[in-house]
Amino acid sequence: MYEKLMDFVRQKPEVYAPGTSKFWDDPHISKQMLKAHLEPEIDSASRKHSFIKKSAAWIAGLKAPEGSQLLDLGCGPGLYTELFDASGFTVTGIDLSQRSIEYAGAQAALKQRRIEYRCQNYLEIDYQEAFDIITLIYCDYGVLCPADRGQLLKRIIGALKPGGLFILDGFTEKFWQDVPVKQEISYEENGFWSPDAYVCLNRNAHYPETKNTLEQSIIITADECQCFNIWNQIFTKASMEQELSNAGFNTVMFFDDVCGAPLSENSKTICAVARKAQAFKR
């Protein structure tokens, strides 16, 4: 275990290097994630619920919901999908977390909402011109490495109907200050990462050359040592527009956030509404 720990802390990871573990379906961590999603007043696993309501209403105003098909990628426990359904969209939600999908499905059944949920890696979607709107919200796009972003955009543009909209957001240069370079160690009897006692080494790192941030948590219990890496890409209007243009989107509108605030230079996020051409050429 000591050698494994030394390997983790010896050097700064390469950009988008994976951790040793994924927490979406860890029995304990996924339970903590769901709890964080459902906390209405904290920007954590999900944004504050008041923001989500405002955001869903703005998105519903971009295209008439009645008769429109909407796909929410990374839907979590269905906070957005329920609002989209209530607006009149026919909604499909996809997420990698089995626990979140099970919760979302149970809530839809309880409230008699006709939402289709799928537990799937959204990098593997294979729809053909099925949706009028596709959303990828809370800066999930920048968590992906450039190759995965390119792959996803190809699948999204294939899944959109001609003239369909793809709505996404990402972090801007203002986000650097939210992830200051640091290294901290703490001890917990139990908590987010484990039901048992653990030591947590938190490290944040900046990669100015590629405009990336890393939030790394190394978790040491009596039995194992795990490493969790959360990457983010810093975007400018030009860099996000270039990626969308390369994928084939011919019109892109930009905003400060997914509530439609006008674009400025003061926001920590940037939102793009990208339109697929009416006559898309593959």
TrEMBL record:
GO terms for biological process: methylation. The keyword Membrane does not apply. The keyword Methyltransferase applies. Keywords: Methyltransferase, Transferase. Residues 71-164 form the Methyltransferase domain. InterPro entries: Methyltransf_25, SAM-dependent_MTases_sf. It comes from the Bacteria. One of its GO terms (molecular function) is methyltransferase activity. This is Class I SAM-dependent methyltransferase. It comes from Eubacterium limosum.
